[in-house]
Amino acid sequence: MNQKSPRNNNSDLLRYAGMGSQMLAVLAAAVFIGIKLDKWLKISPPLLVIILPVISLIGIFYKILKDTSKRKDNNEKK
After folding, report:
1. In degrees rounded to 5, what are phi and psi of residue 68?
2. Half-sphere exposure of 63 (CA within 13 A, CB side)
């Protein structure tokens, strides 16, 4: 049975909490920028408020997938 040390568990917890905080910050920034650009470009339906967060989510999920798969590969080498 493979048990992790408490220190390693805390490290994982902090890593994933950081990823969640980054996700919220990026989404908030994307919505804010989308609102400002829609007003500046005078776009009636709020297209950029929808498009920018979706693009941001795709980028965030790609980064999370890349980070977690890299960590998995490093654990397999040990």
Report:
1. -75, -35
2. 13
